[in-house]
């Protein structure tokens, strides 16, 4: 038996129920208002099962409590509610635990509570609900919430009469509509007439239903025979599989017990019951606030009478106050006593206390205390403390009454509304000064989901302040900072659903208001992300019988919110969107009408709410609808255009992602040989569907103009040969909207390009064994730590350099100093390594890195001294010549940084270099079995470059290095290529046109000189040559080729996006891990570290579908090892990869440094987040030498093989082959790796709170495989232990050195690679 709990408008607990028609049953019951929900047990209630019965109550036993009901208070008077039963029956029940209730259908139920105290609580809630359900009482409560007590519109100075009249009209209209809504509540509708039953199912089943992703309603399964039972809601005979899955009461048809429903009607009924429950919570919350405001009037009257009596004046105060007497209800009691006669102030205060105690203990005040737990608590404190608490009682009561007023909707100029706004504004400024988004997220988590119902966290003002701070980020153009934590905010919202009492209702309504405002007013990309997250949760809760209990419990609340999101996005009236965008809601015609009416009733109740955000799209829409109904609507043409634009983008992109997911799912069920043909046919249909196919496939944040997908090149696709999942590689052409062509939208073309694996279709891509990776597009990004960062595809730039970049006419201004501000941070790490290695430690890593660390520290000091000398010289020259800071930045020391502004040109030159060398090979001018024979001599002056190439000459040819120094070493170029270069340098042709001209010249040479000869096949397959170009076609080449052949290639803002569409795979966990990786990247940048991380976009469009951005210019270690010519190991590959560079030695050094920086970063993250399944198919290497990890299906303690996993004891993967690239233990490169690893560890350790907050929020009630079935506290505790926050700097370095030592000597790494080779054929 569960004891009764009466809290915040609801009463829950165990009851025994019996009637003349049924036997005695034990059930867990929930009472709200006059409706009693019954469940078989508490577990059925907690996991979201349908109730066994829903009873509307019209009468109950008389209530004669012998002790206080709500807070254990004494002196509570009896309720005045009359009994619906005879005196004899009531007297028999008085001394027992039994009581009687009368249902709407006329049934009399005998209920038994566990104890007399529990019985009193049930009766208190029953009588409060019965009194509150009387129409006159409900209208009076609403009037008290909108009445401006103590003031009037005509008495306010400088009042605009038109605005005051409009406010009164809104109040009157809302009261009238509420009265009509109250009359329709509890109406019983006639049962639906049975429809003809189809005995046999059709012999065909549409293909769209066979292989379709997302949620599948059993009612749409035409292959199942019709049920023998009729659905009592819609009257149909649905398929057998859709009937009797679950049943639910249908109170609108008079069916209080469970009735047979089809699945669609069951879902619609669940949403209807949930909306009605919210309406009842709003009624309870309104009664609570009305009780406080009415009680305040009673207290004010008592106070005024006492003042006048002690003044020796009239018993009742006159219309005008006499001199010296101040009777304003908002004054504090101390001020009131001061205005009374001065001879007996203490007597006045004592008399006031006695009068108020008598008032709050009386029979009339008992009903107020019964309705409001807050008021009851204040009254109890007054009864206990008497005179000491009088002043505080008056102040608190005035404050609560002011906040209870429904002023936000009807009059934003009222005193209470302004006080709320001013209070939020003051607290919000404190958040803006702090500027810590992670800390704000932590506070949001604590106040939105308070633990153990802590009263300190029930302050809705603090929650509103946090949400207003997030909206401020959007207004200030920092929506990226909010977008980074958007998944956690959405997860917090889902954990709050469904609200079960009035306090939870207020919190849920506030955060939903925030989500709707941001999603519809600031970013439709976030609206898509929100919708996909909600849909994925619904696919699990409605589509699986054994889903997560939390997801099952909130399913109908999520469906209701999805419908509200649609109503705001598409500007539907009444708050009901129908649920069509999610593809889940399919209510019958009558149920749809009931849902619309219920949502309209809920919207009416929201008009009387006292809790709102200052920028609320929900409140604005309610006002617009109300004013339009009164004929006072404003011109909304501009807003309507924005809504239509966002709605078009939202709907088209939802359709595109759903269609692509369906295609991938369809291919999964086909034979491998037929997949390519079917994919081509399906994509042709997609391309023919319209001018705009959808939005940006990666859903990246955009500015005022959208990126829209206009075409999918059919011949550039590839289907992988996986059985369980069928990833589909697609290239998509996207074009920016023409409506805002002048808006800034820069897409970084030189992020590493799409992989080209010739064995897998010439579009080339990544590893074939696992999920593919993606790099986020460049452009302006908002740091999760509060900084603005522009991402570069080149090697890592110091965050201190980046933070000083400012937009100045489209140019980027370099920083004042090249040295990081926290140089001492890295020096301390180097000295710690030196100390550890020279102190006789047995750690071979410390010993090997000590000498190199010493040299690095010396070099750092020398560099620091040199830069200081140069800065002094520059400062002296500036003072002599009057140079400005901006002109000084053009010195030679900043040339490297300035070159970053020409990223597009560098990428084109790199692609052009490869094309020219290929042209020489085709002519036979270069030997493909030896070195290229190119010797480059760079002048010491850093200016001109002289090149000597051992190549044949053509008449009229010119050396490429003389045309552009970036082509040094390529040999001579033909006159046609020279002409193209001159046109390009003159600005006559674009980057795309330049590559197109050179490609055509190369094709002509191949066809005329080489192709058709006996050496053609040998030339193409020669591993010694093509090993240098093992990553295939560069992204710039591919983009230029497709732009030339595309009908949209000439449009402004045209771009190309490579992505992989997956089905039958939940990508939400991988998206979460990528969020952690991105936060690590931001942390490294903020610390000024040269650690390189490659975040990429993962979009989970559902529970089993998603889109992953392709990694450009990269290939898995597995594919690399299987290519011809790979015989010298990874170190040999680095040498061959850099041989074609103008300076091969320098290129090799840079490639190895890139390898070190990326290896250290990913090794550190592998340790912290427990990345497992690290075989060579899940590790990539790009053309710059960076190592990249992909496929994060096993993290946070999960691993292939479970507790028997070979990787379980390995902190991260560091193989002998990787050590060879680092030149072995003891080399400068290895020392750099160790130093970078230690510095990164310290940087992440400093941001431990941010990581712990994200993980704690995400793992709570999570259905991710890495968190499911695990203790959230244990996960967060172990992550905190791995971060070692208790260690100082030297201890942390020592711990990191031990981790590296363990990784280098781990036996499990080699064994796991060997196991994957034997089982999956992945190269070891």
Defining key terms:
PI3/4_kinase_cat_sf, single chain, six-stranded antiparallel β-barrel, 1-phosphatidylinositol 4-kinase activity, PI3K/PI4K catalytic domain-containing protein, PI4-kinase_beta/PIK1_cat, Kinase-like_dom_sf, 10% strand, globular
Could you please describe the fold and organization of this structure?
- The protein has 1324 residues and is of the alpha+beta class.
- The protein contains 48 helices and 27 strands.
- Strands 10, 11, 12, 13, 22, 23 and 24 form a 7-stranded antiparallel β-sheet that branches.
- A hairpin with a 2-residue loop joins strand 1 (5-7) and strand 2 (10-19).
- The two termini are 61 Å apart.
- The model is unreliable at 65-87, 149-160, 200-209, 317-344, 740-822, 882-903, 926-955 and 1009-1030 (pLDDT under 50).
Write a brief structural summary:
By secondary structure, the chain is of the alpha+beta class. It has 48 helices and 27 strands. Helix 34 packs antiparallel against helix 35 (991-1010).
Explain the layout of strands and helices.
Layout: E1 5-7, E2 10-19, E3 22-32, E4 35-39, H1 42-46, E5 53-60, H2 87-94, E6 98-103, E7 108-112, H3 116-132, H4 135-146, H5 161-184, H6 207-210, E8 248-250, E9 255-259, H7 263-310, H8 333-339, H9 345-360, H10 363-371, H11 373-385, H12 390-403, H13 407-410, H14 415-434, H15 437-448, H16 460-475, H17 479-484, H18 486-496, H19 502-522, H20 524-543, H21 549-553, H22 555-569, H23 589-606, H24 617-629, H25 637-668, H26 672-687, E10 694-695, E11 707-711, E12 718-719, E13 728-736, E14 779-782, E15 788-791, H27 799-803, E16 807-808, E17 811-812, H28 823-838, H29 844-881, H30 885-888, H31 895-898, H32 903-923, E18 934-938, E19 945-949, E20 958-959, H33 960-963, E21 972-973, H34 975-985, H35 991-1010, H36 1016-1021, H37 1023-1026, H38 1035-1045, E22 1055-1063, H39 1068-1086, E23 1098-1100, E24 1105-1109, E25 1114-1116, H40 1117-1122, H41 1129-1137, H42 1144-1169, E26 1179-1182, E27 1187-1189, H43 1216-1221, H44 1228-1246, H45 1248-1259, H46 1272-1283, H47 1289-1304, H48 1307-1320
Antiparallel strand pairs: 1-2, 2-3, 2-7, 3-4, 4-5, 5-6, 6-7, 8-9, 10-11, 11-13, 12-13, 13-22, 14-15, 16-17, 18-19, 20-21, 22-24, 23-24, 25-26, 26-27
């Amino acid at each position: 038996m569960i004891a009764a709990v009466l809290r915040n408008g609801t009463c829950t607990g165990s009851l025994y129920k019996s009637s003349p028609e049924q036997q005695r049953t034990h059930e867990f019951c929930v009472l709200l208002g006059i409706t009693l929900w019954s469940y078989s047990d508490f577990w059925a209630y907690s996991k979201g099962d349908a109730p066994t019965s829903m009873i509307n109550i019209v009468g109950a036993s008389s209530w004669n409590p012998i002790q206080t009901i709500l807070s254990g208070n004494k002196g509570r008077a009896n309720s005045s509610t009359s009994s619906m039963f005879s005196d004899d029956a009531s007297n028999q029940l008085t001394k027992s635990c039994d009581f009687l209730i009368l249902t709407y259908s006329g049934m009399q139920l005998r209920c038994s509570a566990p104890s007399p105290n529990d019985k009193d609580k049930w009766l208190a809630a029953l009588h409060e609900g019965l009194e509150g359900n009387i129409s006159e009482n409900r209208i009076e409560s609403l009037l008290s919430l909108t009445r401006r007590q103590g003031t009037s519109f005509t008495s306010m100075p400088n009042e605009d009469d038109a605005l005051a009249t409009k406010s009164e009209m809104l109040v009157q209209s809302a009261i009238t509509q509420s009265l009509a809504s109250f009359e329709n509540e509890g109406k019983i509708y006639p049962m639906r007439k049975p429809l003809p039953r189809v005995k046999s199912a059709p012999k065909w089943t549409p293909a769209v239903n066979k292989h379709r992703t997302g949620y599948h309603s059993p009612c749409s399964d035409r292959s199942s025979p019709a049920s023998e039972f009729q659905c009592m809601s819609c009257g149909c005979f649905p398929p057998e599989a859709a009937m009797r899955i679950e049943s639910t009461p249908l109170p609108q048809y008079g069916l209080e017990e469970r009735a047979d429903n089809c699945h669609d009607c069951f879902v619609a009924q669940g949403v209807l019951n949930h909306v009605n429950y919210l309406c009842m919570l709003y009624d309870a919350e309104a009664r609570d606030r009305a009780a406080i405001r009415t009680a305040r009037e009673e207290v004010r009257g008592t106070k005024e009478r006492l003042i006048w009596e002690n003044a020796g004046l009239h018993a009742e105060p006159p219309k005008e106050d006499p001199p010296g007497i101040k009777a304003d209800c908002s004054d504090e009691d101390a001020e009131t006593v001061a205005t009374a006669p001065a001879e007996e102030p203490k007597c006045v205060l004592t008399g006031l206390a006695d009068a108020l105690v008598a008032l709050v203990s009386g029979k009339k005040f008992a009903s107020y205390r019964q309705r409001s737990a807050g008021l009851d608590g204040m009254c109890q404190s007054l009864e206990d403390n008497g005179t000491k608490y009088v002043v505080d009682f008056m102040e608190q009561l005035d404050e609560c009454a002011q906040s209870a007023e429904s002023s936000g909707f009807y009059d934003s100029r009222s005193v209470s509304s302004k006080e709320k706004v001013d209070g939020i504004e003051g607290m919000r400024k404190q958040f803006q000064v702090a500027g810590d988004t992670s800390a704000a997220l932590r506070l949001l988590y604590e106040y939105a989901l308070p633990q153990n119902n802590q009263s300190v966290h029930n302050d809705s003002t603090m929650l509103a302040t946090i949400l207003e701070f997030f909206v401020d980020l959007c207004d200030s153009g920092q929506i990226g900072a909010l977008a980074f934590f958007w998944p956690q905010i959405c997860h917090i919202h889902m954990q709050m659903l469904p609200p079960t009492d009035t306090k939870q209702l207020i919190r849920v309504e506030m955060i939903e208001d925030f989500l709707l405002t941001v999603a519809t007013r600031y970013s439709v990309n976030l609206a898509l992300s929100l919708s996909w997250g909600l849909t994925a949760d619904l696919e699990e809760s409605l589509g699986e019988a054994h889903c997560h209990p939390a997801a099952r419990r909130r399913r109908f609340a999520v469906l209701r919110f999805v419908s509200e999101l649609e109503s705001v996005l598409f500007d539907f009236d009444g708050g009901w969107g129908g649920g069509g965008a999610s593809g889940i809601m399919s209510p019958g015609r009558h149920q749809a009408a009931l849902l619309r009416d219920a949502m309209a009733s809920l919207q009416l109740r929201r008009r009387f709410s006292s809790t709102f955000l200052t920028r609320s799209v929900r409140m604005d829409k309610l006002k617009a609808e109300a004013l339009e109904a009164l004929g006072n609507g404003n011109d909304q043409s501009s807003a309507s255009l924005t809504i239509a634009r966002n709605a078009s983008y939202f709907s088209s992109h939802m359709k595109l992602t759903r269609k692509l997911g369906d295609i991938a799912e369809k291919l999964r069920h086909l034979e491998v040989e037929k997949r390519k043909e079917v994919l081509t046919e399906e994509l042709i249909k997609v391309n023919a569907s319209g001018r705009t196919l959808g939005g940006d496939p990666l859903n990246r944040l955009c500015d005022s103009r959208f990126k829209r997908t206009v075409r999918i090149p059919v011949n550039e696709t590839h289907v992988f040969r996986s059985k369980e999942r069928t990833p589909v590689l697609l290239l998509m052409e996207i074009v920016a909207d023409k409506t805002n062509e002048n808006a800034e939208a820069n897409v970084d073309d030189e992020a590493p390009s799409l992989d080209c694996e010739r064995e897998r279709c010439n579009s080339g891509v990544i590893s074939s064994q696992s999920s593919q990776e993606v790099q986020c597009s460049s452009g302006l990004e908002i740091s999760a730590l509060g900084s603005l960062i522009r991402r570069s595809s080149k090697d890592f730039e110091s965050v201190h350099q980046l933070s000083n970049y400012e937009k100045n006419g489209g140019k980027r201004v370099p920083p004042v100093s090249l040295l990081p501000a926290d140089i001492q941070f890295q020096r301390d790490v180097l000295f710690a390594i030196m100390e550890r290695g020279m102190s006789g430690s047995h750690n071979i890593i410390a010993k090997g890195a000590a000498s190199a660390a010493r040299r690095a520290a010396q070099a750092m000091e020398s560099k620091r001294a040199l830069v200081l000398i140069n800065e002094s010289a520059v400062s002296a020259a500036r003072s002599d010549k009057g140079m400005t800071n901006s002109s000084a930045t053009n010195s030679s020391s900043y040339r490297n940084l300035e070159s970053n502004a020409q990223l597009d040109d560098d990428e084109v030159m790199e692609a052009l270099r490869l094309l020219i060398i290929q042209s020489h090979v085709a002519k036979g001018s270069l030997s493909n079995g030896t070195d290229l024979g190119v010797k480059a001599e760079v002048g010491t002056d850093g200016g001109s470059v002289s090149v000597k190439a051992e190549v044949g000459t053509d008449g009229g040819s010119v050396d490429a290095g003389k045309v552009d120094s970036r082509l040094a070493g390529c040999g001579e170029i033909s006159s046609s290529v020279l002409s193209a270069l001159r046109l390009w340098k003159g600005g006559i042709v674009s980057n795309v046109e330049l590559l197109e001209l050179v490609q055509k010249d190369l094709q002509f040479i191949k066809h005329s000189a080489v192709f058709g000869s006996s050496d053609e096949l040998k030339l193409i397959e020669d591993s010694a040559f093509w090993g240098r170009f093992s990553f295939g076609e560069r992204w710039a080449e591919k983009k230029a080729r497709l732009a030339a052949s595309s009908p949209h290639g000439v449009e402004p803002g045209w771009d190309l996006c490579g992505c992989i569409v997956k089905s039958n795979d939940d990508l939400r966990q991988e998206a979460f891990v990528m969020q952690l990786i991105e936060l690590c990247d931001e942390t490294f940048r903020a610390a000024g570290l040269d650690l390189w991380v490659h975040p990429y976009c993962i979009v989970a469009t559902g529970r089993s579908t998603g889109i992953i951005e392709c990694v450009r210019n990269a290939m898995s270690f597995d594919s690399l090892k299987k290519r011809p010519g790979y015989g010298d190991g990874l170190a040999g590959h680095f040498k061959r990869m850099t041989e074609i560079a103008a300076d091969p030695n320098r290129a090799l050094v840079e490639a190895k440094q890139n390898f070190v920086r990326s290896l250290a970063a990913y090794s550190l993250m592998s340790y912290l987040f427990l990345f497992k399944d690290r075989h060579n198919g899940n590790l990539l290497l790009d053309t710059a030498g960076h190592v990249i990890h992909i496929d994060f299906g096993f993290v946070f303690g999960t691993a292939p093989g479970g507790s028997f996993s070979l990787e379980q004891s390995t902190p991260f993967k560091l193989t002998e082959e990787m050590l060879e690239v680092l030149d072995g233990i003891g080399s400068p490169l290895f020392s750099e790796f160790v130093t970078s690893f230690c510095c990164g560890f310290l940087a992440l350790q400093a941001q431990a709170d941010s990581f712990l907050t994200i993980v704690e929020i995400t793992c709570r009630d999570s259905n991710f495989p890495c968190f499911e079935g695990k203790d959230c506290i244990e996960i967060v505790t172990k992550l905190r232990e791995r971060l070692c926050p208790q260690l100082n700097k030297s201890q942390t370095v020592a711990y990191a050195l031990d981790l590296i030592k363990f990784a280098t000597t781990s036996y499990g790494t080699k064994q796991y690679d060997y196991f994957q080779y034997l089982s999956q054929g992945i190269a070891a």
